[in-house]
């Protein structure tokens, strides 16, 4: 059952990421698969720890906001590290 929760959220986030892309934009499949997998794993961990659904969404949004702020501040270092 727990793995089913991960798969459900993975496909949910994957659909959001695929349909939010601009047409004609280069597709990096590692990022298209890695980010939804990380978000699904994060929500899966939260579901193991019995947290209500609305708090899960808030935690994912707060985590995404922190990630964006971190990327804005350390973006060049992060790109050098991954590329």
Could you explain the architecture of this structure?
The structure is a single chain. The chain is an all-alpha fold and 83 residues long. It has one domain (2-82). Helix content is 82%, strand content 0%. α1 packs antiparallel against α2 and α2 packs antiparallel against α3 (53-82). The radius of gyration is 14 Å and the shape is globular. The N and C termini lie far apart (37 Å).
Which short descriptors sum up this protein?
globular; mainly alpha; 3 helices; 0% strand
Mind summarizing the main beta sheet? none
Strand-pairing-aware structural class: mainly alpha
Average pLDDT level: 79
Quaternary class:
single chain
How many individual helices? 3
Order of helices and strands: HHH
Rg calc: 14 Å
Please report the distance between the alpha carbons of the first and last residues: 37 Å
The total number of structural domains is 1
Low-confidence runs (pLDDT<50, min 5 residues)?
none
Form type: globular
Q: Fraction of residues in helices? A: over 70%
How much strand? under 5%
Per DSSP E runs of 2 or more residues, the count of β-strands stands at 0
